[in-house]
Amino acid sequence: MRAAAVDPGVAFWVAFAEHEGGLCEDGGDHSLVLLPESLQGQYSLTEAVVVTADPGVAREDGAILLAPGHPLLERAAELVLGRGDVGWAHLRWPGRPAPSADIMEARAREMVEVDHGRVDVVGQPIAVYLPVLSLGVLVAYSVSLDERLLEREEVMVDATTGLRLPDRTVGALRAGILLPGRARDHRTLDAHVPSALASAHGLLGPRLASRCQALGRQSVRARQEELERAAAYYQATLSSIASRRASANVERQVMLDAQAEITKMERDRRLGEIEESFRPTYVLRPYRLQLLGVPAVVVPVDVRRGPRRFPASLTWVPSAGAFAAQRCPTCASVQVLVAAKERLGCRGCLAGASPVLSSAGEG
Description:
Helix content is about 40%, strand content about 30%. With about 375 residues, it is α+β, with helices and mostly antiparallel strands. Strands 5, 7, 8, 9, 10, 11, 12, 13 and 14 form a nine-stranded mixed beta sheet that branches. Strand 8 (about 125-145) and strand 9 form a beta hairpin. It is flat and about 100 Å long.
């Protein structure tokens, strides 16, 4: 965006204002924004406002300092999140033609492992769009009673299989120019949104758990200091009770003993509370659910074992320089495929068929 909008807060608010119909003029260390009537009334602002991330500019020129937590940022963020980012987009189809059947066959035999079988291309590669599900969430981490973090996470999966997308394809999607809507120049493969969404959510779990562990390690010292302060306080209280008990009569000793037990219970409760308060937790807020069309090529193949042929298809993804990961046609797992005598499966679902796994490959 503009140089004045390098600061994330200013960049976001300027983009928001422009999306709502405003105009912006870059002033270097500030931005002059002309607001439409809808935003003027909604935020009680004049038509022209100056925004900046520089406290000096705000102090000297009377500009609005868009620091984190400013009401303008908070309300704009709430509005954007409330609308969500849902729909279709796609990458433009590359100008070069799809690879020939011979090239695809050579690549398939090189890259796709099939025990006891050989891949034969049986038709011309077909240009398609591979649907990719993009799930974006805001993650509100609670690290301690007075430390909160807000971060963004995004997961992309193949919407036809729910499998994780290769890093190169993710990079191409993030770096490329996405065109709005569903592509019309080539067919888009069917997307299985519920299962793809479940897979994307499943991939988020380990990532967020790892982040929590890292945040927990960062707060070890603060947690230990807080525990030591609390322990010292209760130890001093117990020492005082013990000192008074030493010179007390029997009746008062009974009362002090009860007070000591209550203090120990309170100490244990408080120490547990401190431990819990320093255990990082998070709350997810989804803000993006998109289907993104990625140029791809479907290659019709037969997996051959001797005279037996099992029809299948492979999807070549040019941005990844590889075939998309496939699920077993029998059990839907992700393992090396095996051409058995009667069907095409994987090492997992055909593990009991010892003659298949031990015999020499045919053809």
